[in-house]
Design a protein that fits this description.
The protein has 403 residues and is α/β, with parallel strands linked by helices. The protein has helices at residues 8-20, 60-73, 88-100, 112-123, 138-147, 159-168, 193-203, 225-228, 260-266, 268-271, 278-292, 295-314, 334-346, 376-388; strands spanning 31-34, 37-40, 43-47, 105-109, 129-133, 150-154, 177-181, 206-210, 237-241, 251-255, 318-319, 326-331, 349-350, 352-354, 364-369. The strands form three sheets. The chain has a seven-stranded mixed beta sheet with strand order 4-10-9-8-7-5-6, sandwiched between helices. A four-stranded mixed beta sheet has the order 1-2-3-13. The protein has a four-stranded antiparallel beta sheet with strand order 11-12-15-14, covered by helices on one side. Helix 5 (138-147) links the parallel strand 5 and strand 6 (150-154). Helix 2 (60-73) runs antiparallel to helix 11. The longest helix has 20 residues, at 295-314. The two termini are 33 Å apart. Pyridoxal-5'-phosphate is lined by residues 111-113, 116, 137, 139, 181, 185, 210, 212-213, 241, 243, 251.
């Protein structure tokens, strides 16, 4: 087989999209106007697919902090944390994240993807076992692969399946790592965290919760599902990203376990890449202050997502999960979903199109992500577009969440 032969399938799939006149994976936001509005194809468009949950990307204090850092620390660190790229503010942010979670230590990574990659590959090795919820994010799968660890998938949100698979491991169960997410990125459903913690208390093991989509969103202080479910002390590792509710780029892991600090020395995605830029760190530190105090933002976000969720439900759409800022509309055929997505953009609403094999159970999804910064008029506009296009949606009663 030639070097490029493997691309034939991809080229054919892209050719199909071109024939349909749809390019859902190459959308260019020609101009960004606010956290919730941009220009796409020359048209003012409501952005409802950006994970900007608290709308902090244009926060004046975050922007001012980033500008100050640019002026005083320059545009980049030009090195890894292990070499020349660890600045005082990287460590300050780590201490602030640890204090936020009331944990012993934190590590900052250059992206959320690398936080999972770096923690999992730094912590685990070929002799270790990871128990993975089937719907976990690609970065978690990739981290396990880089670690060379044995991966046992359990059915999505199925606690009995997790317990069954742990029991089969016998005494090894006590040294496994269970990996779940707070809010799952595709369907927007939450992990049954209390029940999972019960399994861990009974059978042992360590628990990693990826709160990428729930930091800033859930919990009184925005610490995610672990806070909302009051099980913070049971989470051995919490991973998160700066790229969603914190409005920047980067990722982190916090833990009470002293070994976390040693992960720095074993984690290739931490060692062999440049550290986040000073401006990124500065805006994230400011955003973290806002996030922790952001009860009003969380309340506004909740009003927005509950409104959109109940409106879509009333229109007869099949939704992936109970209300959360991630609202997944389940559609039928791939081509119908493509056309539907295209019409939404033509109606001035940008959302995400998710197609198999990236989706659970091979469904096609239109994924909305709601922001505290959406005005009620913008939520109205999103509802109007879905209502106008209702007859073209190819709505199906899909069975979900079985991994
Ligand atoms: C659950 C989860 N973890 C990690 C990541 C990676 O985060 P980032 O995009 O900041 O690299 C994502 C991104 O969507 C995610 O959904």
């Amino acid at each position: 087989m030639g070097l490029f032969d493997k691309f034939q399938g991809l080229a054919a799939a892209r050719g199909e999209l071109e024939k349909l006149g749809v390019d859902p994976f190459g959308v260019e936001i020609e101009r960004i106007l606010s956290p919730t509005e941009g220009i796409i194809h020359g048209r003012r468009t409501v952005l409802a697919g950006t994970n900007n949950y608290l709308g902090l990307t244009f926060d004046p204090d975050c922007i001012a902090a980033a500008k100050r850092a640019l002026d005083t620390e320059g545009t980049g660190t030009t090195g890894s944390r292990m070499a020349n790229g660890s600045y005082a503010n990287h460590r300050k942010l780590e201490r602030e994240l640890a204090a936020f979670y009331e944990m012993r230590d934190a590590i900052v990574f250059s992206t959320g993807y690398q936080a999972n990659l770096g923690l999992l590959s730094g912590l685990m090795g070929p002799d270790d076992v990871v128990l993975l919820d089937a719907d976990c994010h690609a970065s978690i799968y990739d981290g396990c692969r880089l670690a060379g660890a044995e991966v046992i998938r359990f059915r999505h949100n199925n606690v009995e399946d997790l317990a069954k698979r742990m029991r089969r491991l016998g005494p090894r169960a006590a040294d496994t790592l269970i990996v779940i997410e707070g809010i799952y990125s595709m369907l927007g459903d939450r992990a049954p965290l209390r029940e999972i913690v019960e399994v861990k208390r009974e059978l042992g093991g360590y628990l990693l919760v990826d709160e990428a989509h729930s930091v800033g969103v859930l919990g009184d202080r925005g610490r995610g599902l672990v806070e909302e479910m009051d099980v913070l002390a049971d989470a051995d590792f919490i991973v998160g990203t700066f790229s969603k509710s914190l409005g920047g780029a980067g990722g982190f892991c916090v833990s009470n376990l002293p070994a976390l600090d040693l992960v720095r020395y074993s984690s290739r995605p931490y060692i062999f890449t440049a550290s986040p830029s000073p401006a990124t760190i500065a805006s994230t530190r400011q955003a973290l202050v806002k996030l922790e105090a952001g009860r009003d933002l969380r309340a506004r976000l909740r009003v927005n997502y509950e409104r959109l969720h109940s409106a879509l439900e009333a229109m007869g759409y099949t939704l992936g999960a109970p209300p959360s800022p991630v609202i997944a509309v389940v559609l039928g055929e791939r081509n119908e979903a493509l056309q539907f997505w295209k019409r939404l953009v033509e109606h001035g609403v940008y959302v995400n199109l998710m197609l198999p094999p990236a989706t659970p159970n091979g469904v096609s999804l239109i994924r909305c992500s709601v922001s505290a910064a959406h005005s009620s008029e913008q939520i109205d506009a999103v509802c109007r577009a879905f209502s106008d296009l209702r007859s073209t949606a190819g709505i199906v009663a899909a069975e979900l969440g079985t991994g």
